[in-house]
Amino acid sequence: MRLPRRRHHPLRCPIPAASAVSLLSTAVAILLLALALLSYLAPPPFLDHPSVSGHRLRHSDPSPVRKPKISRDAAVRRDATTGESFRVPNGGGSSKNGLWGSKLSKYYVGCSNASIKFPAAEAVTRRDRYLMIGTSGGLNQQRTGITDAVVAARILNATLVVPKLDQRSFWKDASNFGDIFDVNWFISFLSKDVKIIKELPKKGGKPFRGPYTMRVPRKCTPRCYQNRVLPVLLKKHVVQLTKFDYRLANKLETDLQKLRCRVNYHALKFTHPIQDMGDKLIRRMKEKGKHFIALHLRYEPDMLAFSGCYYGGGEKERKELGAIRKRWKTLHISNPDKARRQGRCPLTPEEVGLMLRALGYGSDVHIYVASGEIYGGDESLAPLKALFPNFHSKETLASKEELEPFSLFSSRMAALDFIVCDGSDAFVANNNGNMARMLTGRRRYFGHKRTLRPNAKKLYSLFLNRANMTWEQFSLKVYSYQRGFLGEPKEVRPGRGEFHENPSACICETTKAMRGKHSGSLSQTNGDDQHRKSNRGHSISEPTYNHTDEEPDWSDMDYGEYTPLSKSLSNSTDMDYNPFTRQEDSELEDFLSD
């Protein structure tokens, strides 16, 4: 008999009924609890009041930082996506916090006297050995060539003929040596080191035949000169070295390095008209305020084009700078973003202004700008002028009549900027070109005057993200990144970098420094009379003798400073001309390789 199938019924549990009112109350309670928790965890809202920004942030730098006070009239940059405020204060610092000089400068002094082991020129100069030099590039590049030419003549025990300036290259400046520098002072000051004459003498009543022309490798060592040039000089008696820029090794024995300093910092004086006009510009800047900043902006079209940098100007910028870039046939295609990340691009005028304000320089500070044609013109300069309204140049400080003797000559105009930058209370070099190098070394030699070089590699990312931070956070980071870029003594390890930028063999520690380096007040040392005094103290370093060739980097170029954009686009056929050689090389090859 078939049994009936047992059916399994699910257990039925009674569910209590919940009213709609109780469910709604529970949901509201949960929502209020969540809102309360979020309010507790969220940061306090940014208040539009200067006192809010005064709190001190924790920072990895243990040293105290004097931060500028935030004023009620501060400019505000508001990011549309984050809503955060980026406040730029109007206030600045004072001389007490090191804006205008180093407290350690009094413990160091320029020292370039020859040692007793360095015989006088009359004892070592050989008859019938004459060295001629053809310089290359702009004013400051030629200055390096002149300095090294004197040392090369000393190495060869030769008589140096006053160097020929580059007159028919891209810069098209017809000035002679005597138009820029005091040639009589140059000859007399160096008379104990190297015999120098204005022109070749006559031999048997007749002038010498044309000199034997040759070119030495870049960074040629003393042994290189003795092996390559001396045999020719002994046979031909007159040798002319062409394209003479960076043709001498960076590292030499101490007496030769000190000779470099005697040439660069004492023998090379500008002519009286140039020096007098430069001094007049400095006096006019001093009349406007107790201190002033000189800024070598380096934001010319040539500079930006050569470096391959891009600043967000769209297709217009790419076409304009690309057209200039075509002048360098062998220049490789660059990655603009990579160049900026690696710090190989100058800061924009606005970025320079923000850096200076973050370091504590107030909007009332007067700025002298040394530069050629600024890419983007007034539009590019507008943010900088908003941050520093007291904005000057040689054209605004002097009349056209006063500048007329100089205005048609790029080297003479560059010399005026050089003098004002050298006489400034703080010098800002926006890139590591020839003028920046020469002035940085000179300011170290004459008392470590405040010299600022942007740490572009680190500042680039900071500028990109500035909308996401407060002004205090931004300024603290700028202070941190700029350590080691302020022109302090021993900031650069002895022997590192170009000697013209870091003349460590010519900087001595004073006796006071031996007793205590970390106390004292601001002090500066200047003047050519310092060279004639006995060198008391100890040299920071004596660079080792180096027999390897070293190539300068892309910043060795002068980039057509003080040259209008239109001119830079029209003179491409003449830019490689040298008075002693044919136009066989491109400008890039001349400046960067053999």
Automatic annotation (TrEMBL):
Compositional bias (Polar residues): 537-546, 565-575
Chain segments carrying region Disordered: 52-92, 517-594
Membrane-spanning residues: 21-42
Acidic residues compositional bias, start-end: 550-559
Keywords attached to this entry: Carbohydrate metabolism, Fucose metabolism, Glycosyltransferase, Membrane, Transferase, Transmembrane, Transmembrane helix
Keyword hit for Secreted: no
The keyword Coiled coil belongs to this UniProt entry's keyword annotation: no
Biased composition (Basic and acidic residues): 70-81
One of the GO BP terms on file: fucose metabolic process
MF terms in GO: glycosyltransferase activity
Family: Belongs to the glycosyltransferase GT106 family.
Protein name per UniProt: O-fucosyltransferase family protein
Organism: Musa acuminata subsp. malaccensis (Wild banana)
